[in-house]
Structure prediction request, 150 residues.
Amino acid sequence: MTAKHKLTLSVQYADPRLKEALPRPLLRKTIQAALFAPAEFTLRFVDAEEGRGLNRDYRGKDYATNVLTFAYTEDEEAEVTQADIIFCTDVLLSEAQEQKKSVAAHALHLVVHGVLHAQGYDHETDEEAEEMEALEVEILADLGLANPYQ
Prediction:
């Protein structure tokens, strides 16, 4: 995970509450740490209303969730990984408070989580979840962040 891969990044703060805590350079550094191939990502921070609408319309679940990853190239043969990753600010803030974590640490964990999803990782089975969580812990440790599962 030390090799840098080409990254084209767009960051949209439709809900601007996390813009100061999660500036673009920090997001880029975090994504870069989790990349295994060149990528083109759009990160969008939204409020609960937009997050709920997206989750309902695309996943059939009528509630706002912390992160949604719309991966367009999960194929290992793809030259460039492409995805839109949506973060619901309301959910992030609530979860960080409930889990007694800093907003930045929690959000950066979810950035890594979303980037791994974009690259084809999942947690549908116990084995997949263990692999994905181990990668998250390793990447976050490389960034100087604590294990989010402890």
Remarks:
- The two ends are 23 Å apart (CA to CA).
